[in-house]
């Protein structure tokens, strides 16, 4: 094999190390794999890093599907036997204007190979679908943490709605140098993946969250099957919606898998928990079960009084 040569590539996100190989390839240790790059000339060393604990915050406009994205990543995590805790954060049913700070919807997930008792205080990864999502949640991101930003959500209109000063774009002004910034034009790439579909642009854009989910599944060495099954059950009678979401999900996964910029994937091992049957359950659901059980065991009638839209509760 010829001597490998380091090729520096400028990137605002991650430095990529590429090596030239002759006909022969060598075994790569430490769970590294050799990936063919799109031009078939360079090959990239990709490594896998094992983590004990990760906190991800999904954030975007209330119409970006962050609650669904977070819940799907949560279900996928639970099926692997990894301990977890979540904290959904969404605005009132009466929505604030799109792109504004009060209209941001979030979903925080902590998963670990150790026992988990809280959803975490600071995040390791922040998914920001627009400028308002970044501004609202940046203070909760650890220094050195990852920001996955949808660059289309940082145009002049979104920046103005998020109350950034004229001419200021946090993705371009070096104010995020203390973090690892991953800029992806999710909107453009989702539309490109769905260009063969006859649905309108607005309908195509609704699959942006599936593109992001697919990318994160790649980043954390996940299988797509749980979400694929969910989509088939949810949209089984709506072929175009089903196929567009499946295509966007796969496109996000493929983007991570084939882009030379990303050289590291991550894995969290199965948690060390006692054997038995476990349920993935949200706090409201657990509270409802507890109230019903208390009513049954005490023989007393149960009454729930709540206000319906601040936001509405499913209790």
Give an account of the 3D structure.
Helix 1 packs parallel to helix 6. It is built from nine helices and ten strands. The N terminus is likely disordered. The termini are far apart. The chain has a domain of 219 residues: Pyruvate-ferredoxin oxidoreductase, PFOR, domain III (Pyruvate-ferredoxin Oxidoreductase, domain 3), CATH 3.40.920.10. With 315 residues, it is an alpha/beta fold. Helix 3 links the parallel strand 8 and strand 9. It is globular. It has a six-stranded mixed β-sheet with strand order 5-6-4-7-8-9, sandwiched between helices.
CATH architecture of the domain at 50-268: 3-Layer(aba) Sandwich
Radius of gyration: 22 Å
The separation of the N and C termini measures 64 Å
Sheet of most strands: 6 strands, mixed
- The CATH homology group name of the domain at 50-268: Pyruvate-ferredoxin oxidoreductase, PFOR, domain III
List keywords for this structure.
Pyruvate-ferredoxin Oxidoreductase, domain 3; alpha/beta; six-stranded mixed sheet; globular; 31% helix; four-stranded mixed sheet; disordered N terminus
Question: What is this structure's SSE topology?
Answer:
Blueprint (H helix, E strand, L loop, with lengths): L17 E2 L13 E4 L6 E9 L1 E9 L4 H14 L3 E7 L14 E9 L10 E6 L2 H7 L3 E10 L5 H6 L18 E5 L1 H8 L7 H5 L2 H12 L5 H10 L4 H20 L5 E5 L14 H16 L17
Parallel strand pairs: 3-10, 4-7, 7-8, 8-9
Antiparallel strand pairs: 1-3, 2-3, 4-6, 5-6
